[in-house]
Specification:
Layout: E1 47-53, H1 72-79, E2 82-88, H2 94-103, H3 107-110, E3 113-117, E4 120-124, H4 133-139, E5 143-148, E6 163-166, H5 172-188, E7 195-201, H6 219-225, H7 235-242, H8 244-251, H9 267-298, E8 305-311, E9 316-317, E10 323-324, H10 332-335, E11 336-337, E12 339-342, E13 349-356, H11 360-366, E14 394-398, E15 406-411, E16 414-419, E17 424-429, H12 446-464, E18 473-474, H13 477-485
């Protein structure tokens, strides 16, 4: 979901971020083949549904190679759809990432987020000077609706929605039911208006209000994935796992909780957390995605619907020693997200080139024969529905993190991370080192990537001036406590 991102700027750097899109020829779903032309038939007045899952890692889905698969419904849609193998978020927490999806502008331009100074907490909402994807569908005659399970996407994100509701995060089944009821109502209207729908599910995010344990899915989802209880846990593991939410909050202050520290989890304890996460993914798949897909088919809406399945960011599961997504570390596990496009009759394909969440809005508009307004993002497909053969730079940023402010740029499988505090660079060749174990890899595009990063910072600074001053709203004590409990505030 998020990282505490304030307006703090590193010396010599303007807040930045971006990414248009990097894509092109790829292979069909069964694996690498001779490159082929990938096309999607654009359709006027089709329904468009964006289903966003909070903190969903691509690598933990069956359609991205995970076994056992916790995502049978997603896998089925992916088998008949287009899967983007290397899609990245532009931030490692919810608010700036979602704002980028809906505006096509990068976090360094829209500046949505939180700031915390001397006990005062302010939220920077999405400003009305930005035209959202929802507004573009609305002005094209669409009925627009949003059902949001994350209150961080409340202020300003209602632009362009006929109906906008922040729903209860738990239980997940209730969230799905509200959406299905709305679809039922839409199907009974005589207007024949197409639908643009955004659903932001809380799952598989680790936090549940009435639990300190992580990823508390109902037991049957764990049992469906795993036939055993896993490696035996030490007494210390059991205490840490039982209080993981509190231990994480203490870690964000570089402290322990009741003598418990995240770093003391054994390999067995970490595996228990990973299994719990996968159980939550299966819960999301079955309790959230499956009933919506079934409802669309029941109402005979699916045949005229473009479905996009995405996440706002990933999740660290000790890949580089840490847990969650609040630390602002720009490694693959916190940034790589699923992007699956599905529409009946679509030619299945897997896109191998690097791509971005920023381009989702222009893409679904273009495939609906609506010309997107100008932004930093671009459609993945041409107006004729042909996949564009373009490789672009992919940027992600995080400021005011617990350990380090950092920026990253990726290009054709090569990656640079700039750590602001230490003025240090890490370089990775992701085609040879997908787990990012060698942070000093020689890169063919090093000089070009560094130059492009600096150029992008300057571009963001210029673009910010178009949208007027940043507004902010103070949040009350109850909201502050909720955000603090989630790990979003110190």
């Amino acid at each position: 979901m998020m990282i505490r991102c304030s307006r703090k700027k590193p010396p010599g750097f303007e807040t930045f971020l971006f990414l248009p899109l990097a894509l092109l020829f790829l292979s069909a779903c069964s694996g690498p083949r001779t490159p082929q032309l990938i096309t999607v038939q654009p359709r006027e007045k089709q329904n468009v549904v964006i289903l966003l899952f909070d903190a969903l890692r691509a690598s933990n889905l069956g359609c991205y190679g995970a076994s056992p698969s916790p995502s049978p419904t997603m896998d089925s849609l992916a088998e008949d759809g287009i899967v983007f193998e290397h899609c990245y978020s532009q931030a490692t927490w919810t608010t700036p990432s979602v704002a980028t999806i809906f505006t096509g502008y990068l976090p360094g331009v829209h500046e949505c987020g939180l700031s915390e100074t001397k006990g005062s907490v302010e939220i920077r909402p999405l400003r009305p000077s930005f035209v959202t994807v929802a507004e573009q569908f609305q002005s094209s005659g669409y009925k627009t609706g949003a059902f949001i399970g994350n209150s961080l996407c409340e202020r300003g994100f209602d632009q362009g929605f006929d109906g906008f509701k922040v729903v209860n995060q738990w239980p997940a089944e209730e969230h799905a039911k509200e959406v299905c009821d709305w679809l039922d109502a839409c199907s009974k209207e005589a207007t024949g208006r197409p639908v643009f729908l955004w659903v932001h599910f809380w799952l598989p995010h680790y936090y549940r209000p009435d639990h300190d344990k992580p990823y508390v899915a109902p037991d049957q989802f764990y049992q469906a994935l795993y036939k055993d209880t896993g490696p035996p846990l030490t007494d210390n593991d059991k205490r840490i796992v039982a209080q993981l939410a509190n231990v994480l909050r203490a870690r964000l202050k570089n402290e322990g909780y009741d003598g418990l520290y995240m770093k003391d989890l054994s390999p067995a304890g970490k595996e228990a957390v990973r299994r719990a996460y996968n159980s939550n993914v299966l819960y999301a798949d079955q309790a959230c995605l499956k009933p919506l897909v079934e409802k669309l088919r029941e109402l005979q809406m699916m045949d005229n619907t473009l479905l996009a399945i995405v996440a706002d960011h990933g999740e660290e599961l000790f890949d580089h020693g840490e847990f969650g997504h609040h630390l602002g570390r720009l490694y693959d596990e916190a940034m790589r997200v699923p992007l699956i496009l599905y529409s009946p009759g679509m030619t299945p394909a897997r896109i191998q080139n690097w791509s971005s969440l920023a381009d989702i809005g222009p893409t679904v508009l273009t495939l609906s024969k609506i010309r997107p307004i100008e932004s930093q993002a671009r459609s993945i497909f041409s107006a004729d529905g042909i996949l564009l053969p373009v490789n672009r730079f992919v940027f992600t940023e995080c400021y005011n993190s617990v350990d380090d402010d950092s920026l990253t740029v990726q290009y054709k499988g090569e990656k640079l991370i700039f750590h602001v505090q230490g003025n240090l660079w890490e370089s990775f060749d992701l085609t040879e080192d997908p787990m990012e174990t060698n942070g000093a890899a020689p890169l063919q595009s090093l000089s070009m990537m560094q130059s492009r990063l600096l150029e992008k910072l300057a571009e963001d600074k210029e673009l910010r001036q178009r949208f007027g001053p940043v507004s902010s709203e103070k949040i009350d004590a109850d909201m502050q406590e909720q955000l603090r409990s989630l790990g979003y505030l110190h």
